[in-house]
Amino acid sequence: xxxxxxxxxxxxxxxxxxxxxxxxxxxxxxxxxxxxxxxxxxxxxxxxxxxxxxxxxxxxxxxxxxxxxxxxxxxxxxxxxxxxxxxxxxxxxxxxxxxxxxxxxxxxxxxxxxxxxxxxxxxxxxxxxxxxxxxxxxxxxxxxxxxxxxxxxxxxxxxxxxxxxxxxxxxxxxxxxxxxxxxxxxxxxxxxxxxxxxxxxxxxxxxxxxxxxxxxxxxxxxxxxxxxxxxxxxxxxxxxxxxxxxxxxxxxxxxxxxxxxxxxxxxxxxxxxxxxxxxxxxxxxxxxxxxxxxxxxxxxxxxxxxxxxxxxxxxxxxxxxxxxxxxxxxxxxxxxxxxxxxxxxxxxxxxxxxxxxxxxxxxxxxxxxxxxxxxxxxxxxxxxxxxxxxxxxxxxxxxxxxxxxxxxxxxxxxxxxxxxxxxxxxxxxxxxxxxxxxxxxxxxxxxxxxxxxxxxxxxxxxxxxxxxxxxxxxxxxxxxxxxxxxxxxxxxxxxxxxxxxxxxxxxxxxxxxxxxxxxxxxxxxxxxxxxxxxxxxxxxxxxxxxxxx
Length: 549
What we know:
The chain is built from eight helices and 35 strands.
């Protein structure tokens, strides 16, 4: 069975195979089987695939694949045309207990001229199909919602939706598995466990499973267990004496699990992490501590060598100023403080040899919403080091440092939805300054500026999104998804910030302005190629210095 499809580049790191904008069991099953095929038969440079309602997004490393974009499209097209579908896989049925007491239940009833009892009866009388997992770890997108309950998403998403909330958005329904922002209308609550990072697989659901909501008067409270900490032998190497506003363990991110809705997470500023690890002769993906201001106070209980980079928070070692971008010897009992926010938004601390941290799903990165992986580091928390290191004191030259700016131009790649903007909105988007608002965070940057509109507005099916995806909200303002972004989204995607400019974006603070500049995929790829060559050269030069001095 074959379907019409198109292939488009979302950015220099991913393509999307689109089978249309409708919900179809046959198409969804085909997408899922195609996902399984590419996952088990990856091409060179393939990283992961994300199946959604009617699209499959493939994420790849353009520096490792032998294909340019045209060749990759041809390869994928040929693969699909020669693809043989398998028999439909057996599905599992799940019953979800729901207390129908959501804050939007009355609104839904009024919007459709129904009674609350009729809304509950309609919502709970259907066997739903799991069409995809996305947005958040374990978040289910369910098909089969009665047409009488189809309701447009909220114009403005709530900043916090409680875990277990059952919602309706467009012609979809689903449950928020963790506390998170959300734009769906909340009609009830459940205590069902949708995701557990310690289990294999972490979600009991897969595409094609059946779900039925069962009305109940109350749900038993779920026993919340705190993340167990590893027992420490003796005195830890590093202790947090005072808490910072947000200090977390991060590496490059958690991949190959986005098909389960697991956010990639990872550092906001990959260039800072990469440079610090090069300086300390660490592996490129060695985990670092990402800090915001006010930052933590840290005590070293064992000699080590550290380096700081990214933002400048006026670091002091034992009350004496120290600089970013240099290796610093720490003695037993030394204390590290951060006195003032001089510039930037995120400071990184790396240690020679790396931190001794357990990986979860192949990453040390902290998933703040679902509370797994690394952790938010607070007072009396501690870390150990992998190994001791005896490096020389070196400082990176200014010529090799990231070029952070206060009000930069941010380059992006236009997505197909950009063409649906009115001519005036296209001009406004490219020529206006957008201000970063104070409620921006690691999940998304909220912008204020020129309002945009579509010449042909339509409801979009949820599909995969990336770090840097520019979505247009119903209120006409764009947002930029950042490192803790959801894995899928239903708001129109008008573009994607190129990877090379993401660190520049990550160091901006509220009140800073940005202007968007469209560039080609080839330009974005060439920047990454040049950067990789530069990092390799820098690493070889530092290796030579360490070995010959």
